[in-house]
Design a protein that fits this description.
Layout: E1 2-7, H1 14-30, E2 35-37, H2 62-71, E3 74-83, E4 86-94, E5 100-105, H3 111-114, E6 125-128, E7 131-137, H4 144-152, E8 157-162, H5 175-187, E9 192-197, E10 199-202, E11 205-208, E12 212-214, E13 220-223, E14 229-234
Length: about 240
C-alpha cells in the first residue's frame, strides 16, 4: 500500500483549504497513494481565535469527498469538529466513495487547546487494504503509551497529523529532535510511522516542516524539507 504525507500551510479559509485538499489528493493519487494524510486542523488552519467548529455534513467537505471518490483514495483531514460532547481537534476519515468513515479526536491537548476543546477518549483504527492504521494528532505522539495502545490494538501504521513549531519551550532541542523522538516511539514498536504537518506560518507559529514516512525500526523512508509537498511511500511487510 502507498501512503502520502501531505505538507501544506492551511489558512483561515475553509473553502480555499478544501479546494487545495482536493487538488493534493489528486496529486498524491497520481503518485499511487491510497491514503492521504493531512496536518492537524488542516481544513480550517490552526486558527484558535476564535475556533469555528464544523460538522461532519458541512458543505466544505464536498470537494474532498469528490476527490476521494474520483481517485479511490482515503483522506485523513484535520478539523475542529462539533460533537455531542463538545468541540474536538479531529482527524476525519473520508473513504474512497466519499463517505465519512468516522473521526479520531486528539486525546492529549496542550494548555491553550484544553481551554477551547474537549479531549477524545478512544482510539480509531482504520482498515485499508489489509493494513491497520492507528491515528494520532500532534502531542498524542509525545505520550509513549498512546503508540503502545495503538500497536496493542493491531496497528501496522501510526499516522500523526501535527503542527510542530520551529521554536518551542517544551522542546528546547528543536523540532528535529522532537520529530525523531515522537515518531521513534511508534517505529520502535515495529510500526510504520507517518507524519503530516505544516510548513510556513500557521496561526501564531513558524512551523518546522519535515513531514515524511519512517520504516519500522526508525529508518527514514521519505522526507520533505521546508517546502510544501507530497511525500509518498510504499509500505511493505518484513
Amino acid at each position: 500500500m502507498q501512503v502520502a504525507a501531505i505538507q501544506t500551510t492551511p489558512v483561515a479559509d475553509p473553502a480555499g483549504n478544501a479546494a487545495e485538499h482536493a487538488r493534493l489528493i489528486g496529486e498524491a493519487a497520481a503518485k499511487g497513494a491510497r491514503v492521504c494524510a493531512f496536518p492537524e486542523l488542516s481544513l480550517t488552519g490552526y486558527e484558535l481565535h476564535p475556533v469555528r467548529p464544523l460538522t461532519e455534513d458541512d458543505e466544505h467537505w464536498a470537494p474532498i469527498r469528490s476527490a476521494c471518490a474520483a481517485h479511490d483514495a482515503y483522506a485523513l483531514v484535520g478539523a475542529p469538529l462539533s460533537t455531542p460532547d463538545g468541540v474536538v481537534i479531529a482527524t476525519v476519515v473520508i473513504g474512497p466513495t466519499g463517505e465519512t468513515l468516522g473521526h479520531y479526536a486528539k486525546r492529549h491537548l496542550d494548555d491553550v487547546e484544553a481551554r477551547l476543546f474537549v479531549p477524545g477518549d478512544h482510539h480509531l483504527l482504520l482498515e485499508v487494504d489489509d493494513w491497520t492504521l492507528g491515528l494520532a494528532v500532534c502531542s498524542d505522539a509525545a505520550v509513549p503509551s498512546h503508540a503502545v495502545e495503538v500497536r496493542a490494538g493491531g496497528a501496522d501504521v501510526y499516522v500523526v497529523s501535527a503542527l510542530y513549531p520551529k521554536v518551542s519551550a517544551r522542546y528546547p532541542r528543536g523540532p528535529e529532535a522532537r520529530i525523531a523522538e515522537q515518531l521513534g516511539h511508534a517505529a520502535g514498536l515495529g510500526m510504520w510511522a507517518v507524519l503530516a504537518q505544516y510548513t510556513g506560518r500557521a496561526g501564531d507559529y513558524d512551523t518546522a516542516g519535515g513531514s515524511g514516512v519512517w520504516r519500522p525500526g526508525g529508518a527514514v523512508d521519505v522526507r520533505l524539507g521546508d517546502e510544501p509537498g507530497v511525500a509518498v511511500a510504499t509500505l511493505t511487510r518484513p
